[in-house]
Amino acid sequence: MEENRAQLVSDAVDHKGNPADRTTSGGWVAAALILGVELSERLSTMGIVVNLAPYLIGTMHLPSATASNIGTNFGGTSYMLCLLGGILADTFLTRYRTIAIFAVVNALGTCLLAVSTSLPKLRPPPCNPARPNECVEANSLQMGVFTFSLYLYGIGLSGIKSSVSGFGTDQFDKQDEKEKLQMASFFNVFYLIINIGTLLAVTVLVYIQDKVGRSWGYGICSAFMLLATFVFLSGTRKYRYKETPGSPVVQILQVLVAAIRKRNIEFPSDVSHLYEDPAQKLRLSHTNRLRCLDKATIITSKDAGTRETLAPNPWTLCSVTRVEEVKMLTGLLPIWATTIMFWTVYAQMGSFSVQQALTMDRFIGNFEIPPASFNVFMFGSIMLTLAFYDHLIMPLFRKTRYPQGLTSLQKIGLGLFFSIIAMVGAALAEMKRLSVAKTDRSPTLNLPGTVSGFLLLPQFILVGIGNAFIYAGQLEFFITESPRGMKAIGTGLFLTTISLGLFGSTILVEIVRKVTGIKGGHDWLARRINDGRLDLFYALLAVLSFINLGLFLVCAKMYKPNPEEVAPLKKDQN
């Protein structure tokens, strides 16, 4: 009997609602079925994003600035919607249903993109070669269908991204030492899968879109996602499911409202007098942080009788566990805020760094590397960093007192550090490129045979290394440190850092252009890259990133790991 109990996972159930058996559920097999959805999502997303501007400019005949804004807004909005997807998963649908439903929505979006790019009536007529400046821009109907398809895909993306990682970690038991180590490796494997999908997208899928047909590329994405959804559903009996304690958003509001209502009430002399739900299966111990929220747990005369008999009104009295969960989520916010800056740096790899490459010598023999393909070096460095860490560094850690390797906060700190070095390197590379560009007065931006494009490799590689650490670190931190019923929201918080980083890049660019152009000044970010001072912009990013790293270190030092949930004492169960 004791042996059978040891095989059960305390906080998970199987597809029938019975306690999950660790020998027949969860683990790497279940996680692999889930990761298939993430691989297909990344293949589709990067296949759309990296090749979006050429389609909008070359086929839909939009101005380059408009096309750039559409791409940035799509990326930022999609990641911002991940927070909503996390709320839906934690409140109504569960992570399993969210993945299944939104994967179908995602596939439908790419299917409509395939249709919109294949039908001639949904595209403007090709430009007349004799009059290239008089191209007909896409009309409102054509752009409406394309934009609707694009954002339908983005809605599907938000549900998948907010739940896949959380549901994947649900397949491992933190109370089991072996599975706890497997969970630590899961985050690296998860990010490795993301980058495999990205590399396939920027190479194979982009080639199919350009050489075979864009509709074929989107159609393949749709087919892959449907196949991944079928594989995901086939593992229904294999998964471990964790219950969610209701709407986390409502819970947060209830705690805030109850605390405000009782703001003038004195604390009891003994914290044991604070209200705790006797029906709570797992409880969190009381902590002294954010004590203002503890007001929500004080029992007054109006709450008399509810402690042992009637369920209290949650808008006036909340349990200690519910309040501690809100404290846990609030405690993540300083770390959340200090990671946004990295993604502002990351955004430059797809914008200004590509523009730099456009003006440089990119030939290897007779083959010219496309400017956007320099991102392959970034994604390659991400994969190499993850492989190096998982196969060489982790075995060394397992021989020490720290078998789990670097903590999530240490990984985030390393990522921020590498972003600073990357921007310093980018500034130096741009200074070298500009010194040569000043001697070239041709009307074009190309400087063949003068400055090698491989001068840009350090910034791509360093951002890639930083990306490998910070993505895995953020993902691990926000999932493991989020309350049990708010993990999808925790993932959504992480993804909003990417969204805000993208939007932050746009805002910073506009601020720099206005400030440096005051009173007839020379814009750092001029219309022609050779007329600006991009090196100073990179230097500014390095300074801001350095300040941000300092703030992060302060927040990380002050951060206290969230307490584990414990079973209530027997005397509380009587």
TrEMBL record:
Belongs to the major facilitator superfamily. Proton-dependent oligopeptide transporter (POT/PTR) (TC 2.A.17) family. The lineage of its organism: Eukaryota, Viridiplantae, Streptophyta, Embryophyta, Tracheophyta. The keyword Oxidoreductase does not apply. The keyword Transmembrane helix applies. The chain crosses the membrane at residues 100-120, 140-160, 181-209, 215-233, 329-349, 369-389, 409-429, 449-472, 493-516, 536-556. Keywords: Membrane, Transmembrane, Transmembrane helix. It is a multi-pass membrane protein. This is Uncharacterized protein. It comes from Hibiscus sabdariffa. It is found in: Membrane. Residues 1-22 are annotated as: Disordered. Its main location: membrane. PANTHER family: OLIGOPEPTIDE TRANSPORTER-RELATED.
